[in-house]
Amino acid sequence: MKRKLGAALSGETDHTGTVETGSSAGAIVAYQREVKHDVIVLRSHNPGIQDFFPGSTDGRIVRRASCSAHVIR
């Protein structure tokens, strides 16, 4: 995973990439609070009916993060 992340971000500047373990939303929010990032940017899929109900990973992050969260579709 770290190798793929490094390859995806090669040539980019002014970014932070990390690999964490645990539930997706919980790990992302815990890491954000630990390092005090200003914004979380997420890539999302096209929503299905299940995504409009509480419980989607993006929704959990948006509700729990202590900073802004930007979801790109």
Say how many strands there are: 2
Shape: globular
Ends distance: 23 Å
Radius of gyration: 13 Å
Total domains: 1
DSSP helix count? Answer: 3
The percent range for helix content is 25-40%
Can you tell me the residue ranges where pLDDT is under 50 for at least 5 consecutive residues? none
The chain-level structural class is alpha+beta
Order of strands side by side in the largest beta sheet?
Answer: 1-2
Largest sheet: 2 strands, parallel
Q: H/E series, N to C? A: HHEHE
Give the DSSP E fraction (strand runs of 2 or more residues). Answer: 5-15%
Mean pLDDT over the full residue set: 80
Textual characterization of the structure:
- The protein is α+β, with helices and mostly antiparallel strands and 73 residues long.
- It has one domain (2-72).
- The chain is 37% helix and 14% strand.
- The chain contains three helices and two strands.
- The chain has helices at 2-8, 24-35, 57-64; strands at 39-43, 68-72.
- It has a two-stranded parallel sheet with strand order 1-2.
- Strand 1 (39-43), helix 3 (57-64) and strand 2 form a beta-alpha-beta unit.
- The two termini are 23 Å apart.
- The mean pLDDT is 80.
